[in-house]
Amino acid sequence: RLLPHVAHCAVLWPRAASTAxxxxxxxxxxxxxxxxxxxxxxxxxxxxAFVIGRTFCPWxxxxxxxxxxxxxxxxxxxxxxxxxxxxxxAEALPDGPGADGQATTTLVVCPYVEEWKEYPAFRDFxxxxxxxxxxxxxxxxxxxxxxxxxxLRYGFSVEEGDRVAIANANGTTSSATVLDEEGGxxxxxxxxxxxxRFDDGEEFLVRYSSIITKLAVDATTGEERSADDGxxxxxxxxxxxxxxxxxxxxxxxxxxxxxxxxxxxxxxIKAVLAENARxxxxxxxxxxxxxxxxxG
Length: 296
Known about the structure:
By secondary structure, this protein is α+β, with helices and mostly antiparallel strands.
């Protein structure tokens, strides 16, 4: 059962009213020594060094070998121009597996929106205008994944067995135990869900955003309190890139990865995510900062 939650407002895409930014495609090898490299070159370097080079996405290397990954820089300087460019790129992606050299997934780099240099404004645009990545689901069957140099969505991460405090619709707070950290996606807007059991025994699917904090038992008093937990650092690192970037990811590719995992012919998605979190934690904030500096 889904715990009641206030629904997000629908987004009206400003197609005709917007002026598109100039899209600058890039598909070549990274050029770290180039003078004042464009955002697309920096993101290409990050893709090579982090995503592919450190195998954080095992599906990226074969897609890159088939030249199915498109990196494009938007010259849009405001939200409307970027939305127009995102729509243009989404419309250009094909259905089906795609031939060698044909883009089936796109990274749109957005280095020219001044207010997005700081993460809060970028986050607000992503959560409100792009509906937390679900804004293209209905029209394009596509998720939008956000990356930013200062990405900080998760103050913590949770897993099965963790105790959490949940914000209720009436303003109260309830304690619960996480049964499954991957409870699926909300049918209205695609937000990630958790399966939890409340202390009264009721089980619900709740939005990740409804978690106020993780809970831990105070060794002195024996009572539950907010956990002093920095485990969210690893999840944040996985979504950091040299420039604000949106990844257009087709649902059919997600489904294909899930089918391959189930058939035993592809990586297990949950295992990959768990291993990524562990390896990102080993890399640490300093290591990630250094990697991003090397990319530009």
